[in-house]
Amino acid sequence: MAVLEVKNLGISFGGLRAVDGFNVSIEKGQLYGLIGPNGAGKTTIFNMLTGVYKPTDGTIFLDGVNITGRKTTEINKAGVARTFQNIRLFQELSVLDNVKVGLHNGHAYSTITGILRLPKYRRSERRMDARALELLKVFDLDGEAELLASNLPYGKQRKLEIARALATDPKLLLLDEPAAGMNPNETQELMKTIRFVRDNFDMTILLIEHDMKLVSGICEKLTVLNFGQVLAQGDTAAVLNDPEVIKAYLGE
Amino acid sequence: MSFLSNLINGISLGSVYAIIALGYTMVYGIAKMLNFAHGDVIMIGCYAVFMTMSRQGWPPLLSVAFAVVVCTALGMIIEKIAYKPLRRATPLAVLITAIGVSYFLQNSALLIFGADTKSFTSVVAVPPIKLAGGALTIPGTAIVTVAVCLVIMVALTLFIKKTKAGQAMLAVSEDKDAAQLMGININGTISLTFAIGSGLAAIAGVLFCSTYPSLTPYTGSMPGIKAFTAAVFGGIGSVPGALLGGILLGVIEILGRAYISSQLSDAIVFAVLIIVLLVKPTGILGKKVSEKV
Amino acid sequence: MKKTTRDHLITFGLVVVVYLIVQLLIATGNMSSLMQGLLVPMCTYSIVAIGLNLCVGYLGELSIGHAGFMCVGAFSGAVVSKLLSETVTNGILLFVIALAVGTLMAALCGFLIGIPVLRLRGDYLAIVTLAFGEIIKNIINVLYIGKDSQGFHFSLSNPIEIEEEGLWLINGAKGIAKITHLSSFTIGVVLILISLFVVYNLVNSRSGRAIMAIRDNRISAESVGINITKYKLMAFTISAAIAGAGGVLYAHNLSTVTATPANFGYNMSIMILVFVVLGGIGSFRGSIIAAVLLTLLPELLRGLSDYRMLIYSIVLIAMMLFNWSPRMKDFRAAHSLKGRFGKKTAKEAE
Predict the structure, then answer these.
(1) How many whole angstroms separate alpha carbon B276 and alpha carbon C349?
(2) What is the ipTM of this complex?
(3) Domain limits, chain C
């Protein structure tokens, strides 16, 4: 069964139809790309999938459960985690604490336990520290765990966002332009990391990206969006050779 | 008949709130800041009139004109010294600074004019109108207050709609950066907004003290807070909203004082504010804004 | 030892050392009675400032109505101690009961007020907290509660009559009279330590991280499954509760407590805010130091007391400009050792 099944998703802002009739089905473990020119509605789709926007019509199934119109917090608990195009870290928290916020629901203890520092507090915090460091290690950030998030260089901030999203133990990971602002070397390294995450965390990944090298390098399937509508959908190689897609990207 | 006379007093008080609320609303719309010191500018305006008219014997109109000049200058100076350096800082920092300015004005007045209550002589010399065979009296101050409020509203609306400076104000409140790219002088526009708002505050203060004649260094803070409430009530950033919010608030306050409890009238006003914000967080005529993700 | 733990221990140690020094000064007769009279108010301001700092520094919301919560704590605590003063003879126990009730009532008010208020943002929230503070003060000023052989009498806005030998609990604007003097410097210091314990442990726990995450970025906090309403309410309620505890201490240091603007008005809220801002937003230790120094300062420089508030306001404005204006930020970055050798923060690099 598909991890994510989206049927006929659409949203209007006032009179503007930003996304219309969007369908996608993503299998478990797939690396799926969502591409398209600027303003095509890619981030809007992410916002609908994570409950930031309520879709005007259509349904979203996660692992067979209808999550359409639920609140962001609930959707994350159901198993969708994301990163943001314009990085949204907890700037005044340490790198480690950013990930530990992601572990919030997985390692619960009550506020009273925390204030009184009961044994459960120490146990949970130790486990959270260990898990957070493990995740940071995947992104080669474990050396900077104590730094403030805002002190990280740009590329590492993007990675930290992915680590934080993974900490919520999602079924589906949405990455919004993970390679934006990275140089070719960093992008190369990021591709490796994304593949590593997919393989080792058993993750299903949907990503928005403009870097065609990254898209053709790691995505198994693609959907191309143009003016809010699906232009092409299918295996990466086939989609990228579609004359319609080439036309949309290069103009006539 | 007592209901009608209460209603008239309410509208009169509401008109004062509306004029003060204009200052809040314009500054909020353009500088996106809550000018907490606005109420204290009113108080300074009242002292300016008191010192010149009651002490020096200036004619009322000249005194009021003097107060307007003082407050206009004061508003621009405050903006330049305290707010301008913080134009890109967090709203929290700006708000705390504004509270500091408010404190500064109150305590300066305390040192200069003393803590004792000054009894303010009304600047209005219009005779009251008696209606229905003397059963209903409309005080002269109320007539003047409402008239002045309406004139200001119309003039301000025309100013914003018809003049270049007014259009610049609209543009800056819509999008500061875009306005700057269009060649609008942002600093000048913000300064002008403070000048107009503070000048109006002087007029409002004089009208307020003509009805409620006890003047202390803290005279401005309550009407200031209530006028801000009125601005929020009507939808902050909106000129008609300030008028609507001000009048409604004044009427609620006076009717609450007359029919529910005289001591609880402030509590009633604030309770109304909270209820309005719960139902419509942007006020009656306010626009909804959402954050871009 | 972790850096934060060491930091907390320093604060606790500082409080204890100051306490011991003060006790020594009193024992050796080196402290004027005027100074001794300032000790409990100093503790009160410190406690309320700690509570407000949790709200401003960690929740990231400005409240200018914390005097209202202090007021609730003061009045409910004093009512309870007056009611029970016959039955509970142990002063400490009586104070603890009053403290529990006052703190709980303030927490309850914080919770009820927080539900609507926390939906608003920024300036709106600030003005509504102010409105609530004024409402609370206004209501207490017209509240009459008395007890006599007929039972309890209660009235809002109309003075009531009770029997000659009856007991006035709250007498409208005259407030509560003849309160048992239960507060002491020692109790105040213990309360400061407890407040510190609560806030330090809170901000370094899972809930504290959630609160700060919401402050830093609400949208991404939601995206990692943080319940925004729950944690905002929690922080606001705890903050109100601490202010309430400060109020209980304050009331039991006075023989008569009234809800005047000077006690619990918006000026008090501002004064506490000044302590928080000058001590450093987010630094509990700073809040305490600022509260103590600024309470002492005018007494030490007696001639200045007329200018106290004026100086406060100038210092407040100057501090804000120095700390927050972009030009000053650049200046400090260029001229501080940290700026030269440390890593530039992303914000400054912008």
Answers:
(1) 42
(2) 0.93
(3) 3-265
